[in-house]
Each structure stands twice: as C-alpha cells, then as structure tokens.
Design goal:
Layout lengths: L1 H6 L2 H43 L8 H29 L4 H17 L9 H43 L21
Helix pairs in contact: 2-3, 3-4, 4-5
C-alpha cells in the first residue's frame, strides 16, 4: 500500500507519465517509419510501372495524382519529424506542427479536382485556412525570434560577468597616466 501511495506522489507519478509518453512516442515513430518505408516503396514501384506504360498520361489528372501521393509522403515525414523532435526536446514544437498543417493544406490546394471552382465554399475555406495558418506561423516565429534574441543578450551579459577582468593597461589606459600621455 505504501508503494502505491509513493507512486502517486507528484514526482514519481510525473516520472511514470513521462516515461509512458516517451514510450508511446517511440512506438508511434517506429510504426510511422515502417508505414513510410512501405508507402515509399509502393509509390516508387507504381511510379516506375506508370513511367514505362505508354498509355499513362502525365498531364492533368495523372500528374496531380502523383503530386498528391508525393505530398502525402512528405507530410508523413513531417509528422515523423514532429515525433522525433518531441523525443529530443520533450516539447511539441508548434512551428513544426504549423508547417505540417500548411503543407497539408497546400497539398489539398494542389490536388483540387478540376471542378473545384464550382465549390466556392471549399476554395474560400482553404484560403481562410492558409491565411490563418500563415498568420499563426508568423506570430510563433516572431515570438521565438524575440525569445532567442533575449536569450542571447542574457548569455552575453552572463559571460561578461563571469569573464576575466580586463586591466587598464591592456585596454591602453592607466590610472597613473594622464589624459595627455606619460610625462
């Protein structure tokens, strides 16, 4: 009973949850990596067969389908990068998540069906999504850059405080020497 009580104290409990999160993230990364490898092989094989087939048309719908499949693979790679970034830094990097979302919306725009102009709400919705994601990315980037600058200033100030003291002689000044030089 005491052991169970000890596990549910804040520090051991959070440690247990942290280990569980990391384990789940690792499992997801392995599964996604396997899916990516299989999907990339399948995509490559299908593409090779289509390249040698003279009946396949590469303009219009054929090209759009290939681009859609390729972008799906790139989105999956970005999701894998999100997971591995979480494992490295133990935080979700919002910039990566937003870039993945922007790529996903861009994919949707690229592979729009030919009659998409007949669906104005779809086009407007995608446009609003692009604008919102771009604005969110810009705001996050501004905050991150500001924090990076502030961190750099703090580090420089800390180095200046801890660094060796400079002598007046090394700087070309001496309290024994007047402003007009030695006499």
């Amino acid at each position: 009973m005491r052991r169970l009580q000890r596990i549910f104290q804040d520090k051991p409990f959070l440690h247990l949850i942290d280990r569980g999160e990391r384990l789940v993230a690792k499992l997801l990364a392995v599964m996604l990596f396997l899916v990516l490898v299989v999907a990339a092989i399948k995509f490559s094989v299908e593409l090779l067969f289509q390249l040698v087939d003279p009946a396949v048309r590469w303009e219009g719908e054929g090209l759009i389908a290939v681009l859609g499949d390729l972008l799906n693979l790139l989105i999956a790679i970005e999701v894998l990068q999100n997971i591995t970034s979480y494992l490295r830094r133990h935080v979700v990097q919002i910039e990566l998540v937003l870039l993945t979302a922007i790529t996903a919306v861009a994919r949707k725009v690229i592979v729009l069906p030919p009659n998409a102009e007949n669906k104005p709400m779809l086009v407007v919705g995608l446009g609003v999504a692009v604008l919102c994601l771009a604005a969110a990315f810009w705001m996050v980037r501004q905050v991150n850059e500001r924090e990076a600058i502030e961190r750099e200033v703090r580090e420089r100030e800390e180095l200046a405080r801890r660094g060796p003291a400079r002598s007046f002689q090394a700087a070309g000044h001496s309290p024994a020497v007047g402003a007009d030089g030695p006499h």
